[in-house]
Structures
1.
Amino acid sequence: MTKKPAAVTVSTRRKPDLRALKALYADAWWTAGRGDAGIRSVLAHSDLFATAWQGRSLVAFARVSTDFAYRAVLWDVIVSRRLQRRGLGTKLVSAILKEPRLKDVESFWLFTSDKQAFYRRFGFATHPRNVMVWRRTIPAGGPR
């Protein structure tokens, strides 16, 4: 008899530890190179997390930076490759948009290079005239 995989649970209260998040980040092309110092900073300075767990394993993650009144930025929506296309990304984004602590936030912002169609399903729209970016060159050995 084969053992059934543990159910996946979503939480906006459970914060992952460094090891769990680093393992999940290693699973995606755009987060694979992130090091311990940068991940520690993510965990210490983000205002809210949405996580999905299969048993004790972190299988999906998203985070928010916000003032809890006017603006929030959605970052790092990531789902383990082995569980993609099963609705976990949708569950994380929905949990964030419905989170009572964010009920007064007027605008949610995000950055994506390839998932525009996914986010449009929630009502996100592109606003090219509103976004400006200033980039800093980080020397080798910086927090990656």
Note: The chain has one domain: 8-120.
2.
Amino acid sequence: MRQIALIVMAVTAAACGAHQKPTASPAPKPAATATPPPTPPAFYYDPDTGATVSGPGVVGPRAVYQPRAPYPASALSDKITGEVAMNVIVDVNGRVASVSVVKSVRRDLDDAAVAAVKTWRFDPASKDGHPVRARLVATMGFYLK
């Protein structure tokens, strides 16, 4: 019985912090810093040939305006989720020239994704400092929380 009482006292003392060495307070965390904008890719896909264009002087398109699509009410009520993948052609002015779905989820989600992507704006791809048309693959996910 006496051993049980000693064990209980030792466990209680450890739980209350007895016999612990004082610890130094944690070092203050550095202030948050802003992250630089993402670097555009060093390649693009030629929309006419499908070939990957890369090398010195090549910069891929970089999105500067990229709103998300609203979740269609019909897909929301049916609890449909997934990702729509699209081929997007960006013209020399950074506007979306065409969009085609390459991986479909359901027609209403596909249509919402395509409509949103058509409003996107880009810094166009360039080769040797001159803007060029480019193809990219964009995905838009629709997920329930």
Note: The two ends are 54 Å apart (CA to CA).
3.
Amino acid sequence: MLSAALQPVQAQKWKDLYVAALLEGDEDRIPSLIAEAEHAIVARARELFAAAGDHIQEEEAMDDALYALHALRSCLAVHGRFAQVA
């Protein structure tokens, strides 16, 4: 029962880290925030894999978040190359 009580807290953790990565204004901090959010999402996915019940909505949200984080990382890589060239 304790794990069920902690479930909303764990779900909120990856969401908070995800939003923090998306909204960070300091380009130097974004890569570490992306990595931290990805780590939290993977940890949560493992928890849900072992948990009973239907978690499809959260699993789909995590998939979307990972896609968005990957896109953000790619944009930073392109932007960094443009900044170096200019």
Note: Residues 2-85 form one domain.
